[in-house]
Amino acid sequence: MKKLSIGAAVLLFSLPAGAALAAEGKELPERDWSFSGIFGQFDRGAMQRGLQVYREVCSGCHGLRFIAFRNLGALGYGEDEIKAIAAEYSIEDGPNEEGEMFERPGRPPDRFPSPFPNDKAAAANNNGAVPPDLSLIVKARTGGADYVHGLLTGYAEPPEGLEILEGQNYNLYFPGNVTAMAPPLFEDAVEYGDGTPATVERMAMDVATFLAWTAEPEMEERKSMGIGVMLFLLVFTGVLYAVKRKVWADLH
Amino acid sequence: MNGLTITALVKWVDHRLPIFSLLNEELNEYPTPRNLSYWWNFGSLAGIVLVIMIVTGIVLAMQYTPHVDYAFDSVERIMRDVNYGWLLRYIHMNGGSFFFALVYIHIFRGLYYGSYKEPRELLWILGVVLFLLMMATAFVGYVLPWGQMSYWAAKVITNMFSAVPLIGDYIVTWLWGGFTVGNPTLNRFYSFHYLLPFVIIGVVILHLWALHRFGSNNPLGIEAKGPQDKIPFHPYYTVKDAFGLGVFLVLFAAILFFAPNALGEPINYVEANPLVTPAHIVPEWYFLPYYAILRSVTFDIWFLSAKLIGVVLMFGSSLILFLMPWLDRSPVRSARFRPAYKMAFWVLVFDCVVLGWVGANPPEPPYLYIGQVATVWYFFHFLVLVPLLSLPALDRPKPLPVSIGEPVLKGGGAASAGAPAKPMEKAP
């Protein structure tokens, strides 16, 4: 009976996920992520390189509005390094005593400034398409990090007969296959501080790892807490089963 | 000395307000059929999840901002900056899914074992009321994070009322509090999302009151014949429910900690945008069968629009449960002794799963046709099959056991056969 009920629950839960995957076109290549699986942790090196790719490539068009500089401690940066990174940004503050808005260097509690003041400005600068904020992008797309990696490496020649308009690009994994985003990564687009060769594949993996963290900064704490909770619950449920057997023994 | 004063105090209070006697009678001594299977765990599990939902919900409400410009950001603030906010929100978000899973199993258990039959019709009706309240609460709650799917779900569901002839458009404007889904809509949804759970608690109390009038049904579906058929609720069922709770929590924790977004739609992590319609608007998994029924009607009938018929069928698919005690006239409760009804039951379960699968897919062939067949079958089951299978000529019941104790107690048949056939009832 118990097995049946669990089976029924699993069946119910597995329905929508399978259907969602089936709705997409070309199958995303699955990558081996440092953070997948119940023991998965973010690769700190990949995160730091991913931050660099975001800052030097993506941030020209894409915001990261839910991430504050102070959060970068999770990537392994110390307080001074975070202050230094924040200070490289100019943040609008105010109004001051005269009622004027002013620009000042960023501080750790500030968030990453978005590249455009509003969606209209973003669309006007990008062929009418609004580049989405990337804070949650890994959670907001079917396929998650695999999708981000697939999109960044999925630019290809359009199939015979497909007319691609000026300012549009063919991509294997973008829904509809035509995107206004020009291929953002090319060999050595950034120069990694740790000497890692900046291949397109490497940069796509790194920035996807970084964005997986921005989407789920709680993931490592969540999984480690989950392992503790599961171990406790399994033992506790086992004890409850033994107690149940003992209490019911005189009835059977 | 200390123990003595507490006992005295309890006696003093109980004499004036017999709450301790009530708790003792209803939770401790409460005579319960001795043969309840694990399928009888789901009611108490649903009650526990209700409490979990209310507690996490109250705490989340302390950090949530019900405003179209701030709702999405305030949820992200909970996820990122509030201590254990991610845990609270993931419990609440996945708790909704698990709540529905438990209640669906609870309802199907009632259908299988005939728990809606005399004298438990009101108990069943109150249960259906709870189910409807729960669906309303889940829907308005889903809108609160103000993601893309939140917004478009609100739009699609409220727009269904425009199918009402003549006054439909006025009703929709009235529901919205404006001319589109906007801030007044979000505010009233938040208000209802906080109110309805307490209404649910009220109806749960009535549901339990009605339950304790005659006690639980049981897998054999026959009434208890005497004390040998019943056992006190505590410790037998408290421990059995506790073990069931443990199993439930293991499953819940597995999703909660390792795949907290597996049951949701990714697009709901994109903030609501009235100018961009998502490619596929789909509800959460627990509403997919209803969505399939709604979309299966693609043709007008006479002066009735396809939309109106779809909406009526969708609501009707839940409301039809109210009639179950009168649609099923068979005096035999448990499907164990009704071979044809048992088969029809499992076909209905399969039919509901098919409807869910159709609801997750776009309304085009072949899904559309499969959905139409499944919708017809759903109503055929309740309106035709159930009444027909009530006739002994069409579904001859197997012989019922003499008493609950007989098949449970090995060799106890002789003892119970001599016992007077007097139902043991306990007035509350």
Describe, in short, the structure shown.
The complex is a heterodimer of chains A (252) and B (428). Chain A has 252 residues and is mainly alpha-helical. In chain A, 43% of the residues lie in helices and 5% in strands.
What does this structure look like?
The complex is a heterodimer of chains A (252) and B (428). Chain A is mainly alpha-helical. Chain A folds into 2 domains: 6-67 and 111-217, Cytochrome c-like domain (Cytochrome Bc1 Complex, Chain D, domain 2, Orthogonal Bundle), CATH 1.10.760; 219-252. Helices cover 43% and strands 5% of the residues of chain A. Chain A has helices spanning 2-23, 44-56, 79-87, 119-124, 137-140, 145-153, 200-215, 219-248, and strands spanning 90-93, 102-105, 169-170, 178-179. A two-stranded antiparallel ribbon of chain A has the order 1-2. Chain A has a two-stranded antiparallel ribbon with strand order 3-4. In chain A, α2 (44-56) crosses α7 and α6 (145-153) packs antiparallel against α7. Chain B has 2 domains: 35-281, Cytochrome Bc1 Complex, Chain C, CATH 1.20.810.10; 282-397, Orthogonal Bundle (Helix Hairpins). In chain B, 62% of the residues lie in helices and 1% in strands. Chain B has 17 helices and 2 strands. Chain B has helices at 2-16, 19-29, 42-61, 71-80, 85-112, 121-143, 148-159, 168-176, 183-214, 233-258, 288-296, 306-319, 324-327, 339-359, 367-389, 405-408, 413-418; strands spanning 31-33, 230-232. In chain B, strands 1-2 form a two-stranded antiparallel sheet. In chain B, α6 (121-143) packs antiparallel against α9 (183-214). The model of chain B is unreliable at 411-428 (pLDDT under 50). Classes of the chains: A mainly alpha (252), B mainly alpha (428). At the A-B interface, α1 and α8 of A face α4, α5, α10 and α14 of B.
Relevant terms:
heterodimer; A: 252 residues; mainly alpha; Cytochrome Bc1 Complex, Chain D, domain 2; two-stranded antiparallel sheet; 4 strands; B: 428 residues; Cytochrome Bc1 Complex, Chain C; 2 domains; 1% strand; disordered C terminus
